[in-house]
């Protein structure tokens, strides 16, 4: 008996109810405002590879998710939504998840999608996928027939579909014969609305509309990574313009139609440029610092409370974003399923006296508190820099340690804590 | 001349060997454990063991060196961690882009530098000389990345003459190549042209004060011929000497310039390899760039002997 929230999405009645309460979701079936042409997008980072399973880079994800699809993905409100699955059933004990595939879906090479491809893709992700820890809770998966894929868990995990639908490094479905290939060596063949055309590393990726794309008809329009996807343009070219000045110049001259990550310093000028529209992405990223609970001194609750008491989030975020931020006490964005302000009294306290008192009680003896960050993403580095200064002001021996890169070349399995470190990272998981 | 060329080529071998030893050693120069640095803070013990095995770091040192050189002699530089393709393949794919722009830039450097230097020398202490000296000073002082950005604003955004970046292969569309390669080439060339202007100017001034020039002039030969035929041949010597230097700066400058203009050449390849700790790629890139520079310098030296027979030491012909 399906009773869970995510299953409600699949029932037409529930879908209507959801639409009426969520104003941001498309009310009518989406139609292309214009068709044809080449859409050129200036992206801020190089795309290292299109092997989605093995890439930690969000640049890979943003390009590859036009080519590939997953069984279940998130909609724009962060809720899990079926993508290649037509239905998802959960057994009453919460141990068995049954996915039935959508009919008529074909890969870009013309091969029909079957559960053999799903099994092979999951096998590959389990072996070399970046977030393969997601599958640690899984006992087994199998194809019971060509269209039915069953996952059995070791133990019930109420948030299993949430983790399975994570778009950080999505578990995309690739043809079984591609799934057999090592990391970084697959042909980018998926089931998505665009197929791969050309990739010149450090220059551009070009995708073409896949005319035989079978869209998910259970949705009226696109919602986040989910929904009824439709390719309006003939081709999309993602140009890698890592230099912000050059990227903005390309936008101004009309060489690119969309440019991401506009520096605050350029916004005023661009706002006055004819034909340029600035779109502010409210729910773009969260800056998060993880304290290490398993090593001193941050294994001490009072030390962690002292850190929290000392921080001035306004100042941190100002440095991180040049003013483009909203303070948010939650780990989720407003208007999303899990948003809550519980515990907000602990957020943004900026109470140095309280921090010092907590430190004195904790028995903290000036041990180094190492802030681990990277220099590739200025928002992370700047946050950590200001955070270190604030902790020092509260009497903590804070040290900043920055690696030269935020890009990991090889995927982590589990986060093994290091002595006294915390790390800074952005982006919802 | 052949003997000289061969002996210069032989001399390059120990240098290449030293550089290859350095390339091999890069992985050991990383503070701490290379696998930890490559794997990042969240790599598991299993990941680290895998990285060590992939890089051969779990083998004894002599086996590692032997494997490195065996592979190197077979042209196998390993597989790029970031791109997933063999390093040799990536370098072969990218080098025509950088070489094309470097040649374009070199031509611009020589034309600009030589002509400005000669004009300055011929108009010694007049306003043209001063203008040329200022041009040279500006050229030498401006950082090329800044110049690149200013050129984008001027020629792309304001005037709309050239695209802001990107790259079109010459074989696909020569005009498109010229449009995309011009700003990268000019931003690389201006600095070098400034250097060349100064050297040409001072050499030319020195040559023009020589006795044989006075003799030539006294014979009634036109000034054009005096400068173009008699003086220029001797001015070329120091110019050729700095060519090797100019080429090495063109290659290293391409890392920044290719990143700004989104040009997929060796520079961008190496820049990304460095920022993402792609050690096989850095090793391969180091070897390739050094070998290329060595060969170019040998070429310059051979050119030198051809231009000036006095240099042919040992009487080789």
Automatic annotation (TrEMBL), chain B:
Its main location: membrane. Residues 95-304 form the ABC transmembrane type-1 domain. It is found in: Cell membrane. SUPFAM superfamilies: MetI-like (SSF161098). It is a multi-pass membrane protein. The chain crosses the membrane at residues 12-30, 101-122, 134-157, 177-196, 286-307. Keywords: Cell membrane, Membrane, Transmembrane, Transmembrane helix, Transport. GO terms for cellular component: plasma membrane. CDD domains: TM_PBP2. It holds the Pfam family BPD_transp_1_N. InterPro entries: BPD_transp_1_N, MetI-like, MetI-like_sf. One of its GO terms (biological process) is transmembrane transport. Belongs to the binding-protein-dependent transport system permease family. This is ABC transporter permease.
């Amino acid at each position: 008996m399906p009773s869970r929230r995510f299953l409600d999405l699949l029932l037409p009645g529930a879908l209507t109810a959801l639409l009426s309460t969520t104003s941001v979701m498309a009310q009518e079936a989406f139609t292309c405002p214009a068709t044809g042409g080449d859409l050129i997008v200036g992206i801020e980072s190089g795309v290292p590879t299109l092997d989605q399973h093995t890439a930690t880079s969000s640049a890979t994800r943003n390009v590859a998710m036009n080519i590939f699809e997953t069984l279940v993905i998130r909609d724009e409100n962060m809720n899990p939504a079926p993508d290649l699955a037509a239905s998802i059933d959960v057994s009453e004990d919460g141990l068995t998840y049954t996915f039935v595939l959508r009919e008529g879906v074909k890969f870009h090479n013309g091969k029909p999608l079957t559960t053999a491809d799903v099994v092979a893709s999951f096998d590959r992700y389990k072996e070399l996928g970046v977030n393969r820890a997601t599958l640690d809770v899984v006992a087994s998966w199998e194809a019971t027939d060509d269209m039915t894929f069953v996952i059995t868990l070791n133990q019930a995990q109420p948030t299993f579909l949430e983790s399975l639908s994570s778009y950080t490094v999505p578990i995309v479905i690739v043809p079984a014969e591609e799934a057999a290939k090592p990391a970084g060596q697959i042909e980018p063949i998926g089931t998505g609305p665009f197929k791969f055309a050309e990739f010149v590393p450090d220059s551009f990726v070009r995708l073409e509309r896949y005319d035989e794309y079978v869209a998910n008809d259970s949705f009226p329009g696109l919602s986040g990574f989910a929904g009824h996807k439709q390719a309006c343009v003939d081709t999309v070219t993602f140009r890698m313009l890592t230099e912000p000045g050059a990227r903005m110049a390309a936008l101004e001259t009309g060489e690119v139609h969309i440019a991401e990550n506009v520096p605050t310093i350029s916004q005023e000028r661009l706002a006055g440029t004819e034909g340029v529209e600035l779109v502010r992405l409210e729910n773009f990223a969260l800056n998060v610092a993880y304290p290490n609970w398993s090593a001193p001194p941050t294994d001490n609750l009072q030390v962690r409370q002292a850190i929290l008491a000392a921080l001035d989030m306004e100042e941190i975020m100002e440095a991180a974003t040049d003013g483009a931020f909203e303070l948010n006490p939650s780990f989720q964005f407003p208007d999303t399923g899990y948003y809550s302000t519980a515990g907000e009294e602990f957020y943004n306290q900026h109470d140095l006296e309280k921090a010092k008192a907590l430190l004195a009680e904790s028995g903290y003896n000036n041990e180094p508190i190492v802030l681990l960050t990277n220099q590739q993403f200025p928002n992370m580095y700047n946050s950590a820099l200001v955070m270190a200064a604030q902790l020092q002001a509260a009497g903590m021996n804070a040290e900043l340690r920055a690696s030269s890169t935020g890009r990991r070349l090889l995927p982590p399995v589990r986060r093994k804590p290091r002595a006294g470190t915390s790390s800074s990272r952005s982006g919802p998981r | 001349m052949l003997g000289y060329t061969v002996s210069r080529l032989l001399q390059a071998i120990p240098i290449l060997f030293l550089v290859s030893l350095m390339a091999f050693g890069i992985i050991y120069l990383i503070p701490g454990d290379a696998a930890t640095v490559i794997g990042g803070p969240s790599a598991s013990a299993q990941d680290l063991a895998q990285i060590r095995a992939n890089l051969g770091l779990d083998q004894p040192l002599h086996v590692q060196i032997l494997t490195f050189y065996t592979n190197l002699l077979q042209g196998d530089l390993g597989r790029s961690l970031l791109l997933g393709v063999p390093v040799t393949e990536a370098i072969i794919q990218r080098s025509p882009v950088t070489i094309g722009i470097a040649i374009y830039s070199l031509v611009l450097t020589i034309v600009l530098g030589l002509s400005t230097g000669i004009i300055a020398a011929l108009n010694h202490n007049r306003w043209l000389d001063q203008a040329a000296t200022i041009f040279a000073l500006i050229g030498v002082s401006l950082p090329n990345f800044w110049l690149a950005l200013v050129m984008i604003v001027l020629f792309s955004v304001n005037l709309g003459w050239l695209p802001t970046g990107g790259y079109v292969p010459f074989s696909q569309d020569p005009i498109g190549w010229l449009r995309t390669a011009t700003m990268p080439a000019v931003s690389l060339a201006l600095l070098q042209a400034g250097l060349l202007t100064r050297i040409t100017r001072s050499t030319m001034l020195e040559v023009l004060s020589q006795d044989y020039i006075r003799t030539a002039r006294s014979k009634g030969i036109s000034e054009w011929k005096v400068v173009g035929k008699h003086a220029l041949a001797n001015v070329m010597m120091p110019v050729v000497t700095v060519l090797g230097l100019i080429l090495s700066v063109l290659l290293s400058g391409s890392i920044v310039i290719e990143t700004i203009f989104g040009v997929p050449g060796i520079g961008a390849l190496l820049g990304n390899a460095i920022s993402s700790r792609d050690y096989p790629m850095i090793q391969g890139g180091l070897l390739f760039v050094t070998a290329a520079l060595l060969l170019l310098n040998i070429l310059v030296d051979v050119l030198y002997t051809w231009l000036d027979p006095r240099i042919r030491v040992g009487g080789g012909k």
